[in-house]
Amino acid sequence: MPLKYAADFETTTVVPTKVWCWGVACVDTPEVVETGRDIEDFLEWCSLARNPIIYFHNEKFDGSFIIDYLLRNGFEWRKTKGECSEKEFTTIIDEFGKFYAIEIYWKRKNKKPTKCTIYDSFKIIPMGVDTAAKKFGLKMHKLRIDYDRHNTECDITEDEWEYLRHDVSIMAQVLQIAFQYGLTRMTLAGCCMHDYKESIGGDDAFRMRFPSPPIEVDLAMRAAYKGGWTYVNPDNAGKEVGEGLVFDVNSLYPSQMAYRPLPYGIPMTFTGKYDPLRFRDYPLYIQIISCEFDIKKHHLPTIQIKNSPFYKETEYLTSSDGTEITLTLASPDLELFLKHYDVDNLKYLGGWAFRARNGLFTRWVEKWANVKIEADKSGNSALRQIAKLYMNNLYGRFALNPKRKSKYPVFCKEKDCVIYKKIMTPCTYADGTPQLDENGQQMYTDYQLTKPVYIPVGIFVTAWARYVTINAAQKIHYDSIMKTGHSRFCYADTDSVHIIGTELPEGLDIDPYRLGAWKCESHFSKAKFIQAKRYIEMIEGELNVKCAGLPADSHRFVTFENFNRGIEYPGKLIPKIVPGGTILTETKFKMR
Which residues sit opposite 234 in a β-bridge? Predict the structure, then answer.
């Protein structure tokens, strides 16, 4: 078995950039750290190790230095590992430039080719190094150094070596724990799926329950797959509000998987409107409709329009403005839509009906929920974090997009750096015959089609989650308006509601531990909600800043007075590919 390592580079912050030191720690012995001073030295170590598997925490950054070196030094990229031999490498990089793997091949004298496989530990442990050390209960923590000091030649200090040793040792310890509990796949979602399949009897049992739909059906249903409901009440947006409470659902997505009816089996296609009598054994459905709509008085909006040049994707619509719009909605979403909007010219355009059952995931979810509870009781923070990672990351794997786009690295002499191009795939007919254009030339596409998993599960888990959060927010909103003329509801984000006042809202199922119940997460003395994912709350005398896109190091610049649209904060870092690898250039973050 090849040994597994955590690794890290320290790099200069000027153009051209370079690696000025590196370290690796074996996952089996995380206290032992090997170090070196440049990337050539690192790759020499990789070639002499016995087919090592190496994890960088943010492979996109560190991997850019590796790929720059390889392409400058006679290595050639190949599309698949099966095509690789001496001085060749392959990559898995998605359309957004996210790195998943690099595999490098060397030829040693009189021996078989050796290889080094490089993965991204962030894809398994999705948090920063310092956060991981705290969440996993390690005694070691991340240190600090001057990242610009080595932009000119200078000796490496003992403090800098110690900083490096801490970083790789922390991640080696975290990975050691993660691997012990089965997080050994390339991605966290893949680990969760493997664990779930094992719990029900393997791949064959999984496919009996969740048959892969035809790809055209998967792509059509996908319009009903949406994320969490994140909404700021415009009545309170941008205003400083007084004392209030925050309620979170205990494990929202896992609880919906455990206790809601969810789809399984082969769906039935229908035309027109779903008929519950005809589909008595198929109680869940996805319905395509077209209509015009306007929000009802004292109701919160639930509809966003994606992939349209006429609508902002993050905006929840209060009206279609007299335009007929086509929507594809899972049945819980359709129920909410008809409850919250006045609808005109409603046409039912068909859809899919599903067999459904409670309990498809109950044993699996409750297994990890019980692990989490026992870890809480015993103070085992590492095991608690492992259980949370398992519980919260299975549903997304069902919704994996079968339309896969990838990129590959090319060295650009004009720019003296690596650029990334789309991988183009030849188009063929079903029998394998090449598709030709009108000039008789081979046609290409920038995506590959893979076998779908089972998108209906992803659709309904997220739909039920929205159903919980929206219904809770709507009741608080409506009841308080009816009682006082003003809404207590300020903000919701997927599994939370933030309300004005300290009186417990009626009708909210509150319990600090029970799966699916609401718990009072915090009590703020004042707050300000600007837009989705951007708000501040004063909790126990400390300012809690939630601002998507703003680095944590920049939170110190935020105050109640300056937290407004249009404000700019310093400290945002933008990655830029340059000769040698990647640098982070500082810019300002603007709240738009």
Answer: none
CATH number at residue 27: 3.30.420.10
Beta partners for 523?
Answer: 245
Q: Are 49 and 134 members of one domain? A: yes
Give a yes or no: residue 97 inside a domain.
yes
β-pair type (444-445, 425-426)? antiparallel
Q: Is residue 252 domain-shared with residue 320, that is, in the same domain?
A: yes
Taking CA atoms, 138 is separated from 34, 266, 457, in Å, by: 21, 47, 36
Structure token pair of residue 176: 């050691």
Are 145 and 207 contained in the same domain?
A: no
Q: What is the dihedral of CA 173, 176, 180, 185, to 10 degrees?
A: 130
Please state, as a whole number, how many other Cβ atoms lie within 10 Å of the Cβ of residue 271.
Answer: 9
The tokens describing 308, both together, are: 């349209």
Residue pointed to by tokens 């039920």:
464
**Is position 457 within any domain?**
yes
Residues 515 and 380 in one domain: yes
Q: What is the pLDDT of residues 409-468, one digit of tens each?
A: 999 999 999 999 999 988 888 788 889 888 889 888 988 889 999 999 999 999 999 999
The packing angle between helices 188-200 and 381-392, to 10°, is: 80
Q: What's the domain range around 258?
A: 186-400+451-548
Domain-terminating residue out of 135, 165, 180: 180
Residue of higher predicted confidence among 110 and 202: 202
Sign, Cα dihedral of 315, 316, 322, 327: positive
Task: Give the other-Cβ count within 10 Å of 267's Cβ.
Answer: 21
> Which of these three, 113, 147, 180, is where a domain ends?
180
- Same-domain status, 295 and 357: yes
What is residue 270's three-state secondary structure?
strand
Six-digit token string for 559 = 């105050």
Residue 69: C-alpha distances to residues 36, 38, 39 (Å): 16, 11, 8
Q: Which two tokens stand for residue 24?
A: 């690796």
How far lies 236's CA from each of 295, 486, 487, in Å?
Answer: 18, 10, 9
Q: Are 49 and 99 part of one and the same domain? A: yes
Contact 352, 360 (CB under 8 A): no
- The reply to whether 271 and 169 lie within a common domain is no
Tokens of residue 413, six digits: 């002499």
Q: What angle do CA 175, 257, 389 make, to 5 degrees?
A: 15
Q: Are 194 and 169 in the same domain?
A: no
Side-chain half-sphere of 338: how many Cα atoms within 13 Å?
A: 12
List pLDDT tens digits, range 260-303.
999 999 999 999 999 999 999 999 999 999 999 999 999 999 99
